[in-house]
Specification:
The structure is a homodimer of 81-residue chains.
Chain A lengths: L13 E2 L1 H7 L4 H8 L3 H8 L7 H10 L4 H4 E2 L8
Antiparallel strand pairs in A: 1-2
Chain A binds a DNA duplex (30 and 30 nucleotides) through helix 3.
DNA sequence: ATGCTATGTAGCATTAATGCAACATTTGCA
DNA sequence: TGCAAATGTTGCATTAATGCTACATAGCAT
């Protein structure tokens, strides 16, 4: 009825969170504070260990002044946008 | 320690899935098949009983030929777009 | 009326997303 | 060098999202 094996979903979602975050000179902790999650959560997302809920994706997009479609994609991003 | 009370989250996300779906003349079952979920799941989303994962939101947007930001929002939609 | 199709609802099981704590590692800077 | 901040990683608990089954209801044909 239990197993300590979370972290590692099925369907990948690629993102540019780290790129957009560092562009704004923000630390993970600061971004986490802005969107109201733990700083580790930002880490998991940047490393693409799992994909966010839609609500979180919307909050992050707003915090980073980007469109959801500019930040997240089902297909890998090319270099330098 | 348990309660059969799922269905009913905290933070609402508004959407136009039903509007976009009927515009295309699709049934819930058909949309569900296109995005690979249960037809009830589409129902729960349209009634805004919970919000989708980002992956599902991306798939739905693609199936309905819309931008994620056109389909989902943290603030209610006005009438007729 | 009968029947069919689309939709609403309820339960319960499973899995992914997130919180949170603890500790390792890396990097920059005094 | 060493310290401190930022980040990586692990483990476990909790909750939301989804699957799935079953049944009720509503509308629209024939």
């Amino acid at each position: 009825m239990l197993l300590g094996m979370s972290r590692n979903p099925e369907e990948p979602v690629y993102n540019r969170i780290e790129e957009a975050r560092t562009t704004l000179g923000l630390t993970r902790q600061e971004l986490a504070d802005k969107v109201g999650v733990h700083y580790q959560t930002i880490g998991y997302l940047e490393r693409e260990e799992y994909s966010p809920s839609l609500v979180l994706a919307l909050r992050i997009a707003k915090a980073l002044n980007q469109e959801v479609s500019e930040l997240f994609s089902q297909t890998p991003f090319k270099k330098g946008k």
